[in-house]
Amino acid sequence: MSKTFYVTTPLYYVNAEPHIGHAYTTLAADVLVRHKRARGGSAFLLTGTDEHGANIEKVAKAAGKSPQAWSDEVAARFRTMWEALGIRFDDFIRTTEPRHEKQVQKVFERLLKSGDIYRGSYEGLYCLPCEAYYDEGELLAGNCPVHGRAVEHLREESYFFKLSRFEKPLLDYYEKHPEFLAPSWRASELTNWVKSGLKDISVSRTKVAWGIPVLSDPKHTIYVWFDALQNYITAIGYDPDIGAVPGAGGRGRSTFHEGEPSPEPGTRNRSSFEELWPADVQLVGKEIYRFHGVIWPAMLMALDLALPRQVFALGWWTVEGEKMSKSRGNMIDPRELVAEYGVDALRYFLFREVPFGGDGDFSREAFKTRYNADLANGLGNLTARVIQLVEKNLAGEIPRRPALEGKVFGTGVLAKQSEKIYAAMDALAFHEALGLIWEQIAELNRTVDREKPWATAKTDPEAFKFLMFDLVWSLRLISDWIAPFMPETARKMQEQLGAQAAGGWGKLAKGDSLFPRKTEEKAP
Questions:
Q1: In this structure, is residue 501 part of a structural domain?
Q2: Distance between CA atoms of 391 and 57, rounded to whole angstroms?
Q3: Residues carrying an active site annotation
Q4: Which of 44, 303, 485, 514 is in the most buried spot, having the most CB atoms within 10 Å?
Q5: 292: DSSP letter
């Protein structure tokens, strides 16, 4: 059975509305999956929501709703947001679904039987928003290092996972598989933490009702992180009783068509666990890197399952130099940007502005500047100029390539860039890939300025045809390159450049401007 390229996002916690940070991670997964499919491979994107835990109980109660009703509403908003951003996910897993809860309970019982989980009592410093305990040395000025708020001292009976048993196996794995923790400059943080000594971790709660009950001891609910991490295997058919259920996985592979809604559970072709696992890339935020780079692989080792090929930690987005928060009133809703600039402009900006994996700062002025410079004046202007020249002088027809000696313009030069761009995409160097593409766009604009085809059409018709042939085919190549990042723009370009529904290429036809220039001061 062939291996399908399997990409996951973290499960987004339903304590708040989706924002640009969530969008960034999920868009990255979508870009990668589109790239793999465009190169002829099969790929599968899993995303979803994490819905258990004390924090959800708290916010639901404050809203006057049950935890399930609250989770239903917020999960629906995430799905709607992803579809609005052109994200074609293959499956959307929710931790409150029976297909997940049942297998999580089985995993717990299996690890209890093997001795990797045992009962004891726990005392420690707990952050409610993180749903996590911290050692005193990890706190910043006595507060949670992620949320900057006070932690609580808790003591309760608990079941523990023997994380300490996996200290050496994890370090050995990191050494043998340096690509596992990415980007490489973040890996030392986790490696050093493991080297400092791993402690067993609490994996159940007696004071949290909103969770998955332990089958053999129902007064305990399973710790939200131990529950949620398993989604990456429960969604694709893992059953600890029999290893995996052939055909019981998520939805389809490479089956999407543009304009089609994302699937509901059970509506796509089935993919087996063996076809998908191990995951090829698991994208996470840097604040949950430890869970995914240490605890998750230890859990998989305890289950005798292969580890993901790579866990990639993304940085945080700030807004105008400040951390996003409701209290500051600076949360960025991607839908507002889409309404003003279009979805592809947002997709382009997020991956062009910041090297993938690093921290980024969102600025409305920077967004508008990139839109005008790179999209309106760059790609949009180039496409419009070329099509207009062909329509005016060649009635929209592209002739056979004339045999002119010594003339080398775009196509031959650009084609040599493809492998560099594809290599950058495979390495998740999205910023680099877009940089390479826009270098070629800039060079083509310079070619038009230098060659002055509007004059050449009158003085040397054959040279004009040669140049137009090269420019049109260069733009067709560029439309393929940008498709993972900007699928709607790529489609519009190809239509204007003569793509025919039945295949092949026909006459060019200038349509609406790809990116109308923004001159007003209106903020998105």
A1: no
A2: 62
A3: 19, 22, 127, 130, 144, 147, 323, 326
A4: 44
A5: I
Distance, CA of 390 to CA of 397 (rounded, Å):
7
- 323 inside domain: no
Q: What is the pLDDT of residues 31-40, one digit of tens each?
A: 999 999 999 9
109 and 186: one domain?
yes
The pTM assigned to this predicted structure is: 0.88
Q: 97 and 210: one domain?
A: yes
Q: Write out the two tokens for 347.
A: 């997709």
Task: Identify whether residues 376 and 278 lie together within a single domain.
Answer: no
Q: Which residues have a Cβ under 8 Å from the Cβ of 181 and sit 6 or more positions away? A: 174, 187, 190, 191, 293, 310, 311, 313
388 and 302 in a single domain? The answer is no
Alpha helices in 132-264 (DSSP H): 167-176, 184-195, 224-228, 231-234
Largest CA-CA distance found in the chain, in angstroms, rounded: 89
Assign 424 to helix, strand or coil.
Answer: helix
Q: Is the domain of 456 the same as that of 378?
A: yes
Which residues of the chain fall below pLDDT 70? 1, 128, 131, 147, 243-271, 324-330, 401-413, 520-524
Strands, E, within 89-237: which ranges? Answer: 91-94, 117-127, 132-134, 152-161, 181-182, 201-202, 204-205, 213-214, 217-222
Return the residue matching tokens 């799905």.
79
Tell me the pairing of strands 317-319 and 322-323: antiparallel
Q: CATH code at 42?
A: 3.40.50.620
Dist. CA 28–CA 97, nearest whole Å: 25
Contact of 367 with 354, CB cutoff 8 Å? no
Question: What are phi and psi for residue 369, nearest 5 degrees?
Answer: -65, -45
Structure tokens at 208: 């949290």
Domain CATH number, residue 482: 1.10.730.10
- Say if residue 86 is in the same domain as residue 174: yes
Four-CA torsion 245, 250, 254, 258, nearest 10 degrees: 160
The total number of structural domains that make up the chain: 2
Query: What CA–CA distance (Å, rounded) separates 73 from 333?
Result: 17
DSSP code of residue 380:
I
390 occurs within a structural domain: yes
Range of the domain at 381: 362-496
Residues 158 and 306 in one domain: yes
Side-chain-facing half-sphere of 211: CA atoms under 13 Å: 27
The count of residues in the chain is 524
Is residue 429 included in any domain, yes or no? yes
Tell me the HSE value of 84 on the side-chain side, using a 13 A CA sphere.
19
CA dist 56 and 67 (Å) reads 6
Q: Report the run of H or E that residue 239 belongs to, with start and end.
A: strand 238-239
